Amino acid sequence: MVAPTACSTPRLSAGTGRNEPLIMAQNNTHRLAGRAQLPTHHAQRAARGLGGAAVLGTVVLGSAFVGGSAQAAPAAPTAPAAPAAQAAPAAPTAAAPSAALDSTQKLRWGSRSGAVQDLQTALNDHGANLAVDGVFGKRTNAAVKDYQASQGLLVDGVVGPDTRGALNGGGGVATGGASAPSASSSSSSTSSIVDTARSALGTPYSWGGSSLSGLDCSGLVNFAYQAAGIDLPRSSSQIANGGTRISQSQAQPGDIVAWPGHVAIYAGNGQVIDASGSKQRVVERGIWGNPSFVSYR
Q: What kind of fold does domain 97-180 have according to CATH?
């Protein structure tokens, strides 16, 4: 038999009780592959509690050294933007009337002019629905009266200073106010109308006449009212439809009494003064039939 050689003789590891080849020298400082450690390894581990960043001397190493992304410090909160200043609402401006009415011309039933067109436009601005044709007829007359009633003005269908001022933006003056005729002025106009009509007694009847050389019924009424400073339409139908209808009990001397196609001046006590076609002159006589009564004052 051949004796075993020293190379193949197993050695017992101290304290293990097992046969284990001794391959590596006791003083070998190599480590297993993949386990090499940098000198800073322990320092990095010790510093991991500092928000994921490793400390080396006074240099802070980002967490890229430990496999994580760098964390930026949170941005300081910005102050909320101040609300934009709100502009104060503009003060409303008063609407100007679309058409300024003539300051002197008095308008009534039968008037035809550009001033009537302005009147119709102004009435439409206040809710009327008129054709702007420059003709002061039935519908315009009714619209004027409606407007006068809404403004507290004398409802006579005549566009004089008060009605014109209200339509031009000046506001209405209530009947009985400073612009309303006083009792004394009304009495004066009554006396003037009746006295002027009586001064024409006996004047020849003349169709279309308007002077003491000859008068028709509407000519006499206009002649008497002009003496009191009151303008009227020219024809009898326009006169009858242009004023304010009143009852006979409300009629005062100087008001107008109207029949179809004929008008007269009320003289009081059931009497009228008229230019009579049948008598062919101006007369004073009793009321007949069933007339209507109209006031322009």
A: Muramoyl-pentapeptide Carboxypeptidase; domain 1 (1.10.101)
